[in-house]
Task: structure prediction
Amino acid sequence: MEKLSRAQTQTIEGNGGEAKAPRRLHKKLRKNDWELLTMVWLGVLFVAVFCYAPLFGIVLAFKDGNNVLNIMNAILYGDWVGWDNFRSFLADGEFIDVMLNTLGLNSLMMLINFPAPVLFALLLNEIRPVRFKRTAQTISYLPHFLSWVVFGGIISALVNTDTGVLNALLVRSGLSSAPVDIIGDPKYFWGLIIVTSLIKGIGWGSIIYLAAISGVSKDLYEAAEIDGASRVGRILHVTLPGIAPSVVTFFLLSVSGILNSTVEHILVFQTQTNLSRSQVIDTMVLQYGLNHGMYSYATAIGLFKSVIACGLLVASNFLCKKLTGKGVY
Result:
């Protein structure tokens, strides 16, 4: 006779010596379970097709596939060149300027645009009139649903040197003696990108933080109020600690994506006159990959960026876990 575990023996004794049949763990899937599984598998299929399947083409970075007509033949049968494409990129005269532009612009955007949705969510949460709060939320969300082509066209019309409203206000108010070429002048390009990104994304970016704030227990606010905490004190000692895991997670993702740029955002405002400040890694990949047909060279640049991003994610996650005890994994 097989030996019974202590828990099984106690169960049998507690039931008067009669052993009950073990509870079935597997239940039949209900209709709504199948619907949820279908939605999940559609997401898995999307990720597999558009994220994992293209990884097959990474081998092109180590082969001679520049200026070929059939990329698949280059991937399968192209000559192996090893690290030559990476050496060419690192030795390129544009490399230093492109890296400085990418790191400088994205670092400023992370410094300014990352905390902006958090602060906006905190301010929205403190608004008491429900109608005004909903109106402010709706207005802040609207720019997100405009494509960068449409939104960029609106901004370009506003800052136009001849017919733009912004230049007219600057001249009439005496802040500028002549219209300013905000798009064409390289020294204004980073500011233009940061401001337009902030306008377009602050409302949408605050949604996740508003959801996190709604999950903070009301009892904590009541206890803080009883202890005499002011409104600012409740934000600092209740709200912010409550949403800290969400903030840390998105901060780590922002650090890992510091070399990523929204290509359509850059291209909308990029011109030949501001190219010295607007050329970043992603636009360089697009230029060499599609315009010049240097597929292996562009793949090597993209792989270089991905490896750096992976290293940044691991390093920033390690530091955050050491300093705050929280991380992505």
About this structure: Residues 295-323 form the longest helix (29 residues). Residues 93-293 form a domain with the MetI-like fold fold (CATH 1.10.3720.10). The CA atoms of residues 224 and 234 lie 6 Å apart.
